[in-house]
Amino acid sequence: MVKLLKVHGSGNDFFLLDQTKLSEPLNEKEIRTLAQQMCDRKKGTTGGADGLLLVTKSNKGALARMRVINADGSEASMCGNGLRTVARYLAEKNSLTNDETFQVETMQANLQVKGAKQFADQVPAFDVEISPVSFQAADIGMHLDHAELQDTIIPELSPSLKFSAVAVPNPHLIAFVDHATLAGDQLVELGARLNSANPYFPDGVNVSFVEILAENEIFVRTYERGVGLTNACGTAMSASSLLYVMQVLGQRGLEKELRVNNPGGMVKTVVHQRENGEYWISLIGNATFVAEVTLNLKEAMQGNFASLVWQDSGEQAAYLGFAAAVEQTNK
Ligand SMILES: N[C@H](CCC[C@H](N)C(=O)O)C(=O)O
């Protein structure tokens, strides 16, 4: 029997598995199969998840490495909401204090993480670095007639929406929209189209619609590659904050705390610029441990969850109270 955690950041939910605790680490095929079986929203007895987060040893001097496996078994380079929960897991595992900064290795970079002030009673929060940022079509996997895309109409995608594209390093396609468009069907239509066989983003892309609510406040809704519509996507909220600062606020938006609402709750972001001009983003939000899940990995890989034991942490009730209060202030 193996212990996993069911975790979430803004309702973007994952199973977290510490591979270093297994006597025999899973191979690539087993990892893919486990993610597909456990994340299935209909088959799993636990309601599934958006993905699987794997904690492994770092070979690049970080405290540990995080791998992100989407619900369909594909691997993402990063996960902002997931990284907050992995940061909390590692801080607790290594008995670190809340303000101690440490590094987590991800596919493209070692990222700085640290504890943050809790969002509410029993709603612990973490602050994680989102980087590297690139606007180059090649880094985004974008095959349109543009080397970069900033606030531009692309008739093949929509006759009226203006799109921007950025890798953070997950690939994101983002449009600022009005409320009706944010809430309408277009996001799912476009997300589904660009994440099945298509000439523009052959490897898929995370698609987000963003509504500006106030000077320091936006709402982001995302259709994720490898998953579908999610409650929230951390890298999408970071990418959207960056574009909002670049295209709307300008210099005065740098180093400023933004409030980013999403269907699963709310996070805060801060956009920074290094001396060499490169941008990076701080993503600050809840890191909730919903339950400890004990199961037999071999059985789970076959979609058999009969011997699974679910031990609730009680944190989710506190999170739901917080999310309800956020929704109330948004009305
Ligand atoms: N939900 C994650 C991102 C997953 C990205 C993934 N869907 C992909 O790029 O394939 C987040 O909080 O940042």
UniProtKB/TrEMBL annotation:
Binding site for substrate: N12, N70, G80, N81, N170, N206, E224, R225, G234, T235
GO MF terms, alphabetically ordered: diaminopimelate epimerase activity
Catalyses which reaction(s): (2S,6S)-2,6-diaminopimelate = meso-2,6-diaminopimelate
Enzyme class label: isomerase
GO BP term, pick one: lysine biosynthetic process via diaminopimelate
Site (Could be important to modulate the pK values of the two catalytic cysteine residues): H172, E224
Catalytic residues in the record: C79, C79 (proton donor), C233 (proton acceptor)
GO cellular component: cytosol
Family as reported in the entry's similarity comment: Belongs to the diaminopimelate epimerase family.
Oligomeric form and interacting partners: Homodimer.
Protein name: Diaminopimelate epimerase
Species in which this protein is naturally found: Ligilactobacillus salitolerans
